[in-house]
Every structure is written in C-alpha cells, then in structure tokens.
C-alpha cells in the first residue's frame, strides 16, 4: 500500500527520467521512456488486437534469425527506452529486457487518441537517431479506414515519408511483406458494432 501511495507523487514530481530511475519503479509496471519523459500506456483491447494482427502479417516472410514481436522494451540510451507496439528484430539477445535496439529492422507504432503526436514526432526522432531503417505508423483513428504511413531513413539521418495508404500495402523494404489494411478496418468495424455484454 505504501508503494502505491508514493508512486503517483513520484510521477508528478519527476520531470527528467533516465533508465537508472526506472529501477525505483515496480518491476511489473508497463512503461516507456521517450526523451526523458515517463509514459504509462494503457492500450485498449482493439489496439492490442491490431498489434497481434500486424505481428502475424510481419512474421510471414520474416528474415531468418529475426522475429516480429509486440510490446518489447528497447534499450537506446539513458533517456530513451521505448516500447514499440511491434518490432522486427534479430533474435540474438532476445532473452533479456530491455533488448538493444541494434538489430531492429522495423518499428511499428499503432496510434491511439492520446499517442498521435508522440508517435508521429517524438518517437520518430528517437528511432531515426537510433538508426532503425524503417518506421511505420498505423492509425486506426484516422476517420473510417486504418491508415499505414511508411517512413524510411534518408541521407540526412531523418525519416522521410514514403507512402500512406489504407489499401493492401506491399513492400520489399525491409523485407517482402504484405499488410492487409482493409482487414484491419473490418476488425475495427467488428469492435464498433459489438453488442455490449451487460
């Protein structure tokens, strides 16, 4: 009970977090650290379902020795330990947490109403600076369709927008993969029209 009372006070007072500060938090806490800012995400069931579907689609042609996984902490530096919705990374050192960001081929963030600006700007800068070659933002909050925006590292070390679509998305970068965005839009409709169970 005492720890639970101290935690909100600590969160309110601290403004510039480092990975060393995370040691003082409960080990079962789900968090991200972006530019020294502690984020405590609380995803919806639909959000997590989209992440699982994307991970399954990305797993089909995954390069040997790599895996597409959801909700893994990535070690970057003292002020950044993001927890992307989906990451495709080498399996090496995958038994530890956080896993080093080196070896990540692709990071995918699924937008929620509270994460739009963070996913589009702050996280993009962090992942680009860490050298992740491909970054996707999947937005199920963009009107009627689920929208995927693809970014790739440019010559200046920043992400450049390659495409944005709500149709079936096929690419060869970072490896051959197809993402069925209309199927994710249908999934969203299923959630929208599900009957309450109370």
Automatic annotation (TrEMBL):
SUPFAM superfamilies: Restriction endonuclease-like. Residues 21-163 form the Putative restriction endonuclease domain. It comes from the Bacteria. It holds the Pfam family Uma2. InterPro entries: Nuclease_put_TT1808, Restrct_endonuc-II-like, Uma2. Signal peptide: none annotated. This is Putative restriction endonuclease domain-containing protein.
């Amino acid at each position: 009970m005492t720890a639970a009372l101290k935690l909100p006070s600590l969160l309110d007072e601290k403004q510039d977090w480092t990975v060393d500060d995370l040691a003082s938090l409960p080990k079962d806490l789900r968090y991200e650290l972006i530019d020294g800012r502690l984020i405590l995400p609380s995803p919806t069931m639909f959000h997590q379902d989209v992440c699982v579907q994307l991970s399954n689609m990305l797993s089909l042609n995954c390069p040997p020795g790599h895996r597409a996984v959801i909700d893994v902490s990535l070690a970057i530096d003292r002020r950044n330990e993001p927890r992307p919705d989906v990451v495709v990374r080498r399996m090496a050192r995958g038994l530890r947490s956080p896993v080093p960001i080196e070896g990540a081929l692709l990071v995918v963030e699924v937008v929620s109403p509270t994460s739009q600006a963070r996913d589009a700007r702050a996280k993009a800068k962090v992942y680009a600076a860490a050298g992740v070659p491909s970054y996707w933002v999947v937005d199920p909050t963009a009107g009627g369709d689920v929208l995927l925006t693809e970014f790739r590292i440019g010559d200046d070390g920043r992400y450049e927008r390659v495409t944005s679509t709500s149709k079936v998305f096929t690419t060869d970068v970072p490896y051959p993969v197809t993402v069925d965005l209309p199927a994710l839009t249908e999934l969203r409709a299923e959630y929208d029209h599900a009957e309450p169970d109370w």
